[in-house]
Amino acid sequence: MKVIVVGPRGKMGKLITQIAAGREDMELIAGVAPKGRDYIGRDLGQVAMTGCDLGAPVVDDLASVIDSCDVIIDFSTKEMAMEVLDLAIASKKALVCGTTGFNAEEMQRFKDASVHIPMLYAANTSKLVNVMNKLLEVAAAAIGEEADIEILEMHDQWKKDAPSGTSKEMGEIMARTMGRELDDIAVYGRHGVSPRENGTIGYHSLRAGNIPSSHTVFFGFMGERLEITHHSYNWECFARGACDCAAYLSGKQAGFYTIKDVLNL
After folding, report:
1. Catalytic residue check, 159
2. Which of 12, 36, 41, 51 is most enclosed, with most CB atoms within 10 A?
3. Tens of pLDDT along 138-156?
4. Among residues 56, 80, 52, which one has the least CA distance to residue 68?
């Protein structure tokens, strides 16, 4: 499988490149960086610090290299992701996108793209996070109507969107399981006189230092509580998952795929 990585100098793009470089089923064709970066034109292995040259360039124009690839892996920015999506559709190339922070209209564009290309969107590519999502579905079905549900998510100081895409997905899973829409029951933070309303899902976002990712969902009862938590120690689990997602798309027909398909959840 011939792979292009978008944003190879970013925290995720760098790790994805390193892991893909070590896989026998993947060949890195190019990296795509934003215009104006001083590393454009250098070898992808140097830019992503793999420890060796990969014989693949870093370019600032996806269109110039897209015909040579089978799949694009994009963990860049909202703005860049939209450009990548349009080019993937035009060139009929499979796309894995793990960028977060999109609004409903932007997310619909990814779903619409699945008519034309194999499209896999995943707010979180960690295997264990997605197992956690399955546990949340079970818990919400059993006790969601009785519990006070609160979500605490923690990330590094550089994360732009809040709450995280992963925590929003968790809330959507629980809300859907209870027959609700997350937009109707989500409460984002509290300030001043703000008593808790029954049937809501509370969100709390912490940004500090280089915390990689942490999500805890609390199911509060009188006299007891249940917590379901995932902590990542670094970003490698997400990068491995992203490469697994790309490998999953090999030979797939156009359609909208998720990490659940990859993990058979």
Report:
1. yes
2. 12
3. 999 999 999 999 999 999 9
4. 56
